[in-house]
Amino acid sequence: MQINTRFNIGQELYVCTDIAAKQNQCSICHGYGKVTIKYESFICPKCQGASAHQPKEYKPEKIRVHKIRTSASTGGNVSVKYTYFDDMGKKRNIAESKNLLFATQEEAEARCNELNKEVRDNGNR
Ligand SMILES: [Zn+2]
């Protein structure tokens, strides 16, 4: 059988990521606004819980495809996953079906704007 992937290994792509939120994330509570000490939950002493209310903002990030994994099963389910290293050198996986990877910055920006609109519309959750 043959599985077609949208992109190739080594290809430069743009991924929509909420990197801005991650960079500003509190190092103690990792954006939860709370910490658990001995099974009890407390408001984070560093950010006073403010980290939990930080809005997500998607931005295009330029990446290079490091690895592609495909899997197929009976019933015609095919999944394609791309691996890349983010700007902090951390390995990340992203599924093609998430529709967050694009060949051009323009496409990625359009999709990011859509996602940011969704975040705003769903806000205050
Ligand atoms: Zn915190």
Q: How is this structure best summarized?
A:
The chain has 125 residues and is α+β, with helices and mostly antiparallel strands. It has 2 helices and 8 strands; from the N terminus they run βαβββββββα. The model has no long low-confidence stretch (mean pLDDT 88).
Would you spell out the secondary-structure blueprint of this structure?
Blueprint: E1 12-17, H1 19-23, E2 34-37, E3 40-43, E4 59-64, E5 67-73, E6 77-85, E7 91-95, E8 101-102, H2 105-122
Antiparallel strand pairs: 1-4, 1-8, 2-3, 5-6, 6-7
Supply the key terms.
125 residues, 18% helix, binds zinc ion, 8 strands, elongated, three-stranded antiparallel β-sheet, SH3 type barrels, alpha+beta
Give a verbal description of the structure.
- This protein has 2 domains: 1-18 and 56-125, SH3 type barrels; 20-54, no CATH class.
- Helix content is 18%, strand content 34%.
- The chain contains 2 helices and 8 strands, in the order βαβββββββα.
- The strands form 3 sheets. The chain has a 3-stranded antiparallel sheet with strand order 4-1-8. A 3-stranded antiparallel sheet has the order 5-6-7, with no helix packed on it.
- The longest helix has 18 residues, at 105-122.
- The mean pLDDT is 88.
- The protein binds zinc ion.
